[in-house]
Amino acid sequence: MRSAGAPSRERGAALFVVMIMMVVMAWFGISALRLSGQNQQIVVNSQARHHATAAAQRAIEQTISSNLFTVDPVAVAATPITSDVGQICRAASAIEPPMSPSPTMPILSNTGV
Question: Tens digits of per-residue pLDDT, 15-37?
């Protein structure tokens, strides 16, 4: 035979279990959102690195393919080459979050090595 107090305790235990499950599910959801944001940041930074590498490769190819490179390589290497990595990044930022840190391309000068 059942006692009169048993059903109310069971309902309270079920509520407690459901509340714990809700907290755990919310924690999983928040973790999933944070991980997806981090993964997106990794992809954006990887793309920026790829664009910077491509710009550097274009500058190297432009320098080496110059007709004056065989005559005076120091003068050709000292000539600045414009390459706007930021333009590529700004076009990508229309659909992607901003990169951190922002990619920069240092200007190297050859001072008579």
Answer: 889 999 999 999 999 999 999 98
d(CA 83, CA 50): 14
Cα separation of the two ends of the chain: 99
d(CA 32, CA 26): 10
Q: Which of 48-62, 66-80, 99-113 has the lowest mean pLDDT?
A: 99-113
pTM over 0.85? The answer is: no
Instruction: Give me the half-sphere count of Cα atoms (radius 13 Å) on the Cβ side of residue 58.
Output: 13
C-alpha 59/C-alpha 67 separation (Å) is 15
Instruction: Return the closest-CA partner of residue 79 out of 56, 96, 62.
Output: 62
Residue pair 112/72 in contact (Cβ under 8 Å)? The answer is: no
Contact call for residues 59 and 83 (beta carbons, < 8 A): yes
For residue 25, which amino acid is it?
A: M
The answer to whether 85 and 55 are in contact (CB under 8 A) is yes
The answer to whether residues 58 and 83 touch, using CB atoms and an 8 Å cutoff, is: yes
